[in-house]
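Late entry, evening session. Most of the bench is empty. Finally got around to the prediction I had been postponing all week. Sequence below, unchanged from the version circulated by S.P.
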Amino acid sequence: MTPSSNKHATNAAGELEYCDPLDGVGLQFPDAAASAAESVWVEPPGKPRKFVRIQPEFHADPDHVGLFSSFAQDTIVSPPPFVATVRNARVVGFRTILTESGLFFNDDSIQGRSARGQFLKELAMPYPFNELTGMRPLGTTGRFTLDIGKRRVQRVRGTVVVLSSAEPSNYGSWLFRVLPKFQARERFLPKRRLRYLVWCGHSTFQEYLQLLGVSEDRIIHQDPENVIYQIERAIIPSMRNNQAFLDPESVTLFAGMRETLGCRQKKGMRIYVSRVAQTQNGHSRAMLNEPDLVAKLVEMGFRIVDPESLSAARQISVFSSAEMVVGPSGSGMFNVVFCHPGTKVIDIESEPHWIHAHRSLFASCGLRYGIFAGSTLDRDYREHHKPWRVNIQALISQIEKWS
């Protein structure tokens, strides 16, 4: 990786310059670069990948909320996956890697002047946009300095795979951003007993790692708020699915977990993914009439599922058994990655902000999906996560029509 200016001057001044991992890369196997301070291997053919995102089978808006315009089949473009290796790397915040030569990057490739400009602009903003990096902007665009603050530096010897990514505590994000990075391990380092730096604040996350063969003694529990990690040799697999559209390799990973821990579809098995517990715990995105909906669905033979109360293995088993999954959008619905292709999914949306990622996930998993709009108490969507209601009778009718 090479910056656009003199890296020695940058280092001497204590400045940091962004460098996209795919700029000036070396096409080489990761271990072949063991003697190099910084190197990047790009998965062949090394070009942007294009995926077709099918449209939903229906878009129901019974209360004329107008969250979305009509949906059409379109194309998702993602950068090629890469694996970077950096000696004496510092990991700051959620996923930012600092090199000895004064460069920084993360697990994504940000191509295009507009996208890169927006990324650097957000990095200069307060939390959550700066991802707890502690980086402060300098006068020149794209230049930063690091404010360590009260964080301590933890030095880690040996080789460590950095699984860190954006939104580390969000379950849905963890599923589509972190777990697919194991494709890099399976492909390039299958027999190496490696250690992993990863945010594991929920026990379910640790369970998934164990299911993939990572024992507790090989996990370095990332604490991005309080610790900067100085790693002797860091291996950084890229985020394979930066728009939540699972690539074929990620689909294969989840299918393998389904085959090992899941089951066949059960005839007539319909599940509802409940958010009642989150509402009771004070989450602002509360479906106010969800108890009434749950009562109706129970009468129809639905199984009510609270994913947070289930182990990782049990979530895989339950979702793999379903012929139909219904639920309000949220992390729990991301468990459809364990459903069999062709499973019917009714996604109940109450806000316009995340439909792109949700559609991408459903389409990439080969699911038959439909979008059903709920209604917030007001229509000012500048504020995220607000109370809302669903038209229960219209939803029941849609379920019966589609069953």
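Two things to note before I forget:
Residues 3-13 have pLDDT under 50 and may be disordered.
The longest helix spans residues 248-261.
Will write this up properly tomorrow.
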